[in-house]
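Researcher: Please translate sequence to structure tokens.
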Amino acid sequence: MASNQNNGGGFMLWAINSIFSIFRNRKIRKLNKKARGVKQIKKVTTDTLLPLDSYQDNIIISGGGDLERLKFSERILQNSFAQKQTLVALHLGNSSLENVVAGNNLGIIASQNNKTFDPFTSFEVHEIWQVVVDTCKAKYGINSNGRYVLQVVHDLLVAQKIRPYFANFTNFNYRQIPSRINDCLSAGFITKTQANDLNSLLSAGQSEIAKIDNFFNDMAIQVKHIVASDPAKAQAQSVLSAIKFNKTICLDLQSSANTMLVELLANTLMIAMGRGYEFSLFLDDIALANNEALKGILRQKSNHNNIICSKDLFVLLDSDESIFSNIVGVADRTVLLSHGSHISCEMWSKYIGEYEKIDVARNTGGGVFQSGRWGSFAQSGQTMQDKREYKIKPEEINRLPQGQVFAYDKRNSDLIQANVAFQ
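Model: Translation complete:
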């Protein structure tokens, strides 16, 4: 009889504990879900994740396939165009991106097949000097006296009613400047006084002529795939003129190794910032790890925002954790698609952050009731403890199916997982 009573009491205790466990575990799952903060959405569109008012946000798109990223890029371009926000897109032979710009009439394309670029359009003479001296400074070492040479060339071109395009600076014979001054004087383009002034300037910058000549020869090679040979006929634009007139410009760098071109563009963007212009800088899979000029632009605090679209941002940064932290740390919106690299997935998990998870584990404890933060329960099979866990685990990023994303809005800590219906 006693044995039956004990068995009955044990069963009752087990039944009560099971009922409490069911309700307690349900409560714990709700608490964990709330603490994790990932909203599950069955279907969204790109304009939901990147709404019209995001046109001035710092945005990162990382992972996935070319077509997936292109759809997000298209939304970003459309938003900028609708809001009349200048956007400077730099890419490496991404013809699909060019087709989006051309097909929707969103802006200017400068490429091998559309040579409409002139680096100096809309520049003041002192700004031409600034970008020349600041581009590849260590290689050419053009000192401050070089500005006198550029001033002479500029004034001779203007005197002959020739616009100071990049092509005209490049084609100028720097070793025959004195002859050009005399020719202009003889032809009546300049006065004797002006000729004397130009000769004085030339004398002051004499030591820099060869350096400037070398600079333009080398730069001409790096920009030949996009630069207009006849800028006036091509209605060529520079990055500065595009920004000035609120136009999107999509420019093909061909290679991240074209360091002179990249630095020239970065220095042009610095001038635009100095003028107080607003613009968006869009980098499409441009390597940044060893590109100090572009990294400097990304770090600048001004009236511009940065957009980076990449197959894998961490890999693109040569797995440099410091640069990665700096770049993603200022991102307002991040869209993550599937990543193949586990290390990259780990870095993104760290960036999104952790939450305090209530972990339930089985044990073989006794049948004593106790009360805790998760409710009253009998210790007959489970223990609970707090532990830190990633809101998004690396393997979750790695295993994202095509068309599914994690999207993070840093300003309001909004984190969602959703299937994207690409329009």
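Researcher: Any highlights?
Model: Residues 366-372, 374-380 have pLDDT under 50 and may be disordered.
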